[in-house]
């Protein structure tokens, strides 16, 4: 077995795991911070919603669709100047975070919009009838009612971010993806490739299982 894993440098693999988790945690935090309000705004300005603004909705929808349609590897390259301006580098963990946020925020925002659309309109109308403001409707009705769907959206977004962190390794983004590219692909070290893929699979499975449990916990069904 040792001969099969002869190329493995476990301390380096450990650092790569920490880099991947750091990218995932920071990028997911910013994605939720930016994507949730954007998703709520998309919902509110949509047709027959609380503050329907067809023109604004179409503009936001087009921008979201454009960012969602860009392959992440292209977005990584396009944002190199902006990334360097914001973080001082386009490499490593810092250099990967802005593209990760830019790529996943519109994706999460669209999932938020879809989740809010599933809320029973009668519940929203009842809340309004009691004199609730728009903010109160959002805080006390829309978000609580859509909580299981929102948790599922966060789970899906986190898994997409894991995939993107691996892809960021192609341009020196750090983490397990970078390790797989530099050693597993460029140096033909198959054992490194297998281990990094296995670790990414375990991470995705852990996120999915955790998300599913939270959805079941907060679901009223």
Secondary-structure element series: HHHHHHHHHH
Any low-confidence stretches, pLDDT <50, length ≥5?
A: none
**What coarse outline follows from CA principal-axis ratios?**
elongated
Summed over residues and divided by their number, the pLDDT gives a mean of: 86
Count of helix runs = 10
List keywords for this structure.
single chain; 221 residues; mainly alpha; 79% helix; elongated
Explain what this protein looks like in three dimensions.
The chain is an all-alpha fold and 221 residues long. It is 79% helix and 0% strand. Helix 1 (10-44) runs parallel beside helix 5 (92-117).
Give a nutshell description of this structure.
With 221 residues, this protein is an all-alpha fold. The protein is 79% helix and 0% strand.
Topology record:
Blueprint: H1 10-44, H2 54-69, H3 72-78, H4 80-87, H5 92-117, H6 121-129, H7 134-145, H8 147-168, H9 175-185, H10 190-218
Helix pairs in contact: 1-5, 1-8, 1-9, 2-5, 4-5, 5-8, 6-7, 8-9, 8-10, 9-10
